[in-house]
Write a structure and sequence with these properties.
- With about 300 residues, the chain is of the alpha/beta class.
- Helix content is about 45%, strand content about 10%.
- Strand 4, helix 6 and strand 5 form a beta-alpha-beta unit.
- The termini are far apart.
- Pfam families: adh_short (PF00106).
- It comes from Cloeon dipterum.
- This is Dehydrogenase/reductase SDR family member 12.
Length: about 300
């Protein structure tokens, strides 16, 4: 069942019910920041927003790749309001410094950057690489950028999650998977993506003036998939979604009036809010567990946002 929904055929079936008018939006005067936007669905989302006249900020680790993407987007759209920012979101202090130096107003943040590292790597802060990128970096960037939304009439935050989280229950006590006997990058990634769902739901409650959402792009043919999951790619490559299909719901959530009518904090697939748990799921966490998880993120926020840490 999931195979059908997440694959290209699942998108094609869902697209038959899309309202074409939803994406006929003039984005002139609106500002969009997209992490991990030099390739894949992040790049395609940036392209579509620029095509509609939006000012787009590409936030990427690799300056060369980001500049190439920027030049390509400008050339294809004729929109010169596309800007490159170099940032590795796995580095907490760099995230804080970046936001402090980001002087632009913002309407929409798309948390798209992520990683799937298959061996345990700890940084100088004791943060495991996947957790640092997918969870901590995403949380710090989102929270730090909230002040940039103050002048926006339609502030939105979209976090690109994954269907892999459907098989994971939040482990609030061990978010870095330190107790995992044999390190499994896919399982760690799925745990991170479950954390992003909880994070989105909780931030939506805490900041009612901003519209939060998370989404699953389906199984799309991206450089990240080819690199991180080569076996999966080789098995599924003829059935994977294209990057524009994977990016469609990101763009819809970023600009469509219909998306804003949905309650804040929901999880979407193919422009539709869907459950964050499978039927008869054992993956639901308690309010207490979610409080513990969010407190851990808040503790990291205070740790890295201190003046003496800049």
């Amino acid at each position: 069942m999931l195979y059908c929904i997440f694959s290209r055929s699942g998108y094609e079936a869902a697209a038959k019910k899309f309202n074409e008018e939803d994406l006929k939006v003039d984005c002139t005067g609106k500002s969009y920041l997209i992490t991990g936007s030099n390739s894949g669905i992040g790049k395609h989302a940036a392209l579509e927003l620029a095509r509609r006249g939006g000012t787009v900020h590409l936030v990427c680790r690799n300056k060369t790749a980001a500049q190439e993407a920027c030049d390509e987007i400008k050339s294809e759209t004729g929109n010169n309001n596309v800007h490159v920012h170099v940032l590795d979101i796995s580095k907490p202090r760099d995230v804080i410094r970046f936001v402090q130096s980001f002087t632009h107003e913002l309407d929409v943040l798309v948390n798209n950057a992520g990683c799937m590292v298959h061996s345990r790597e700890l940084d100088e802060n004791g943060l495991e690489k996947n957790f640092a990128t997918n969870v901590v970096g995403t949380y710090l960037l989102t929270k730090a950028l909230l002040t940039k939304f103050e002048g926006s009439s339609d502030p939105r935050v979209i976090t690109v999650s994954s269907g892999g989280m459907l098989n994971q229950k939040l482990d609030a006590e061990d978010p870095q998977c330190d107790k995992m006997k044999t390190f499994d990058g896919r399982q760690v990634y799925s745990q991170n993506k479950r954390g992003q769902i909880v994070m989105t739901e909780q931030l939506a409650k805490a900041h009612p003036n901003v519209h939060f959402s998370s989404m699953h792009p389906g199984w799309a043919d991206t450089p990240a998939v080819r690199t991180a999951m080569p076996d999966f790619y080789n098995k599924m490559k003829d059935r994977l979604r294209t990057t524009d299909q994977g990016a469609d719901t990101i763009v819809w959530l970023a600009i469509a009036a219909a998306a804003k009518k949905q309650p804040s904090g929901l999880f979407f697939q193919d422009r539709t809010p869907v459950s964050t748990h499978l039927p008869l799921a054992w993956t639901k966490s308690t309010p207490q567990e979610e409080t513990v998880f969010m407190q851990k993120l808040e503790d990291l926020w205070h740790k890295f946002n201190r003046v003496d840490c800049q």
